[in-house]
Every structure is written in structure tokens, then in C-alpha cells.
Amino acid sequence: MRVESAGNEKTGASSMTGRVTGGPAMYAVLGDPVAHSLSPVIHNAAFRATGRNASYVARRVGAGKCGPVLRSLALGGGGGNVTVPHKERVVPFLDRRTRAVEATGACNTFWAREGEVWGDNTDVEGFLGTWHGVVARPGDGVVVLLLGAGGAARAVLHALLGTQDVGRVRLWNRGEERARTLIGQHGDSRLSRIGDWRGESPDVVVNATSVGLDGRAAPLDLRELAALPRAVIDLVYGRDPTPLCREAAALGVPARDGREMLVRQAEASHARWFGRPPPPGVMARALE
Which residues are catalytic? Predict the structure, then answer.
């Protein structure tokens, strides 16, 4: 397994090697659950806009099959994305991984080139786009309450600690050992684990857990914080506003769900597969 430099990872367009001519190249988002995913909507819109003979679907796969399915899609001339809970699990199945995958330990997009399976983590770019949109001119020393310690949280943490805005990141996860491991891997003095989010006073709350996918439960009660945050970013999304975003709106707190990040990371994924992003706005309009 090789780690690619930043100079190479942006130009990893698939050569479509190995695809049976005549049929569409197959792309998929791999996860469990995955029925809620809007990735097929936005990627197929991009394929139509660019005239590509390709099809994108959502595939529910279990832990034991996600790696082999990923390799089969990529080496068959297609590619795709990885979502909860497989982003960390698929990394060993990559022949080449970018610095973003190496830094986060998670992969959310894959393709093949010259017979080798590549993986990248465009969640980092996707989150930063949302971050700068929500936290306009944040200034120095922003305190972030980050919920979760899985693949999505790893990308968020990598993005946050790479900015000059963040003063502290307070990490909460239901499994304490997983949180400790993640903190130990970073070794950044701005990062610390908390056992309970109640009583915290963050400037920004970021939900990187899957809580809220069912549309019923929020990962925390904003009213139980010591003070309301300036903004909320929920990586979860659905057909309707998430429970956390609904609560934030009711309290007058600016909030965005995961749709914007979805589009931004998807545009970056498209660029990895084909060497250039889709036409501006195509994916975002597909969600309207």
C-alpha cells in the first residue's frame, strides 16, 4: 500500500481499465444503512450533465463484504463512495491511499487506475467548505464540541486542526476508548476528551455521529449546554431537516445539515474519478 503525495492525488482520474465495453460504468455508495443516501441523485445528475455512460446506486453491504465489493467496483471500471460504518474498514483494501486517508484513517471515495485501487477522503474538503460558510470570519480561539469518533469525525478533526480558527476541540463519544485512541493519534494540545457534553460552552457544535438518521432523535439537547452555540453543523441529512437542526432553528441558532457537505465532497469525488469536477451547481440543483 502506497501513500500518494498531494501533487498526485488530485489527478487520479480512472482510466476505466477493465470495464466491459458497451455497458455503463458502475458506481455505488457502500454503507449500512444506505437507503437514505442522496448520493445516487447527485452523482447521476452529474453523469447526465457530462454525458458519461455511467450509473450510480446505493448498495447496502455488511462489514465482511465492503472491501471486496469496493475492489470489484473499482477494478471493473467504476468506483464510488463509502459511508457509515465502513470508512475505516475499507482502508486495508486500498492499493494506494492519499495523505488525507493516511491522516484520518478513513476513506470515503475510491476508483482504479492502471490496475490499482485508489482511495481518498474528500470529506475533509467537504467539511471545510461548510465550516467556512457557517462560521464566517470566526476569529481565533473558536471552541468546538465534536460529537463522534468514527470515520466522519476523523475527517472533521483533521480539517479543524488544520485551520487557524480553532482554539480547542472538545471530543465526546459514547465509547470512551475509541475517543481516547483518536486523541492519542493526533497528539494536539487543542484536543481533549470529555465524558459529558452537558455544561459545555462551545462556539460551534458539530455532530459527526449517525444519531438523527432516523429523523427522531438528536445527539444532544442544546438547552443543556451552559450557553447556546453560535452555530451547529450536523453531518447527518435526510429528506427533511434533522432533529438537531430543527432544535437549533427553534432556539435561533444558525444550523446546516449534511447536504452541503455531501455536495462538496461529491464534487471532489467526481474530480478524482474523471480528472475534473462536474459543472458548477449541477449536484446542488439535483437536491432542490
Answer: 87
